[in-house]
Amino acid sequence: MNKDNHSLTKEFLLIGFMDHPDLKTLLFMVFFAIYLITMVGNLGLVALIYMERHLHTPMYIFLGNLALMDSCCSCAITPKILENFFSEDRMISLYECMAQFYFLCLAETADCCLLAAMAYDRYVAICRPLQYHTMTSKKLCIQTTIGAYIAGNLHSIIQVVLLLRLTFCGSHQINHFFCDVLPLYRLSCVDPYINELMLLIFAGSVQIFSIAIVLISYLCILFTIFKMKSKEGRGKALSTCASHFLSVSIFYGSLLFIYIRPSSFKEGDKDIPVAICYTLVIPLLNPFIYNLRNKEVINVMKIMKSRKAHNILRQVSSS
Length: 319
Known about the structure:
Layout: H1 3-7, E1 11-14, H2 24-51, H3 58-85, E2 91-93, H4 94-127, H5 132-135, H6 138-164, E3 173-174, H7 181-187, H8 193-227, H9 231-260, H10 271-292, H11 295-318
Parallel strand pairs: 1-3
Antiparallel strand pairs: 1-2
Helix pairs in contact: 2-3, 2-10, 3-4, 3-6, 3-10, 4-6, 4-8, 6-8, 8-9, 9-10
């Protein structure tokens, strides 16, 4: 490959959502609303868990870190989408592309580990309540969270380093709304076989391992729920598990469809709708699924609201 062709690889053109220029204002408003709600919901949850010592338990520590990673995912992708709706220059540099993919890969890998940890935590809480404090100690919780971040960073670094070995020629158009790894493979003029193999090994290992933990945990939970004598307790537990399992199913299903299916490295037409699910929809829904249906979180929010109202009344009366 000559140097002239190699020089064309410094920038890429993101052509996702360019098929409907007449809808760009509507799409901008929709994605801006999703971004705003996602950031407020997730960062608000992180702040709530940080400020309330009552929520400093393993489950909420995992939830807080999951919300932080969802915010990271949204920040890595959505601002560039919003910019491109009204920008004449929809280009993204090679290094911006790598940075965007790095933070996305970090967030998604850490999310897989955290969701598995949360499923295990629920298993212990429901199936072995008397051993909860020994099997899910604060030390183990912190170690698991740190492990999730280490796994996310290692996976991201490996994939980005492997991307840097590729050279790109011909078309510089990425048929996507962000710099995902698979569209880059399709633009490579070097055989990306090693990259594809390593992605399959690492992404597959993380997803299969975490999915196995989630499935085993929820199966054990279901068996325990069906043994409960109280219909009310059974209904509440099933309702909670069903909402959590729905979110997990959408998240893992989207990742498996994009990165693990046999034809994923050749076909790009189906990537965008599925990518919207795990990059935008899941971070948007997680605060509602995991917390707004949680009575403990709602009670803490009510207490904080009443404290704030009380402080305002005190300030008004003193003045």
